[in-house]
Design a protein that fits this description.
30% of the residues lie in helices and 29% in strands. It contains eight helices and 30 strands.
Amino acid sequence: MELTREVQMALSKQVAVEKCCDFCESDVNVKWFCRDCVNNLCDQCRRTHTRIPLCKTHVILPISETQAATLRRTTALFDCSEHAQSCQFQCRTCNKQICVLCLTSSHNKHDFLALDQYAKSIRENLYLTLNSKSNEVHTITETLQTLSTHKQTYDDWMNKKLSEVDQVFEHLADELQRLRTEIHDKIDQRKNHDIITMDLQHKRAYEFRERLQYQVKVLSSELDHCNDHDLANLKLKIETECNKLRENLTLDLPKFPCLRLIRKEEEHKDILIKVLTKIMKTDLFSLKTTTSFDVDNETPVFMEDLHLDLTIKLSGCKYIWSMAGCDDGKMWVGTEDKKLRLVDNFGNVVKCLQMTQSAAHLAVLTSGEVLCSNGYGIDRTSTIQKVSLNFDVTTFTRLSQAVEVGPLASTKHGNVLVGIRNSIGRGEVLYLSHSGKTINKVAQVTKEVEKVAINEEDQVFVKDSSCIWIMSLKGEFINQIELKNELKGVRGFVCDRFSNLVCFRSDVSSIRVYSSHNALLKHFRLHLKSGNDRVIDIGAIDANDYIWLKEEETIHVLKYLV
């Protein structure tokens, strides 16, 4: 019988005991065992092993003489059931121990391995399995320790919260008095600052008038006594002096602050009860915060009729393009003169930025930054600008040159929705990340996208000239609202914090509030004195639940909730 070369090599390499190092295969007795590699190591290989970067974290254990004797495992050879030979191989095809004669007969061309090598590979796999289970034991031990520590921390935290509740009620009266003093101080500070500013403007104008009057008198006297020969020199002198006598006397008159104070005593009582109820019903586990005193934020209470709270007229502009509200109640306003104004809830312009493009559409991100787009047909561009919290103007993103950027809307996730008009005049809505990267396409319509909004339930409202499409952020169709009957003539709309759709109908000057399920909740009639040719539209709803309407250069702030 003639054995193949492969079988002869396997027989020559098979040993009865394992005494050598698994790395250098020298005959030096092993003294170390790597638990991660599941290999025996001599002293030299151990030093080399610990210097390898990938093996620095391996656990290397010393081997005692008793353990070393155990490591010298003998391979017990059993007799073959078919031949009078010892089984020295493992047939991996049949999963059976076989002898050398089996290799040339019934197990010819099968996948086989020397028995000691097969045992070594099985032993290594078992070591790895046991090692993973040992790691599980360690992980569970850490979990138990974490749970025990968290239990004590949780108990301390709950006791601390109970103590804080007691402190709130103990110091409530002191806080109300402090708040009253603070309001008085702020009003006095504002008044003193404005009076000093007006005094300085008065002094500056008075001194300039006196200086101007004196110089005119002196120069007039010189002109009266000047002969014809010196008239040219005097002309140059008078022109020079007149150029010097210039002063910018633009008045910066402070506006009268509109303090929204409660007039009726029962309203004070209602607010106090709501505050106390809010404290008593605080959810310590979710720690939700709101911008309103309402305990039940899911049930809006509408007023019987709209109440005009404030009228703001922006000087220096002819038309208001867009609005977007901030979390602190302030409102960003984009105007046709390429300026972006930040207006507080008293009607004062606290910041005015000169933009390089028209702020036809605005959106305020959850980070507080504001995005501006140019709008369709206005200096055609595909760029969206961003104004940071420090009022620095940068480029947020630049889309394809073949599209025009239109309406914007921000989501509660910090991302943004962008309406665009493509090269063939059709409308699309893109969903962009907070860094300006396109996530997916939300909607595609055959007409121009006029308005985009999103509610708290992540329903996207896309308006064209004939209907409002309701889509999901993933681009799934939800519903369609046709702009006919009572919705005919709807110009603009916004979503409030209750996920309601607040629509403004310009032809009959009315505001309709619809739920997220398209049910009419409230219908308001608008009573504003306006010219017939002046266009009114809804701009935004601020953080204090006030509706902001825009009418050319004028803003009307309306209260629609109790």
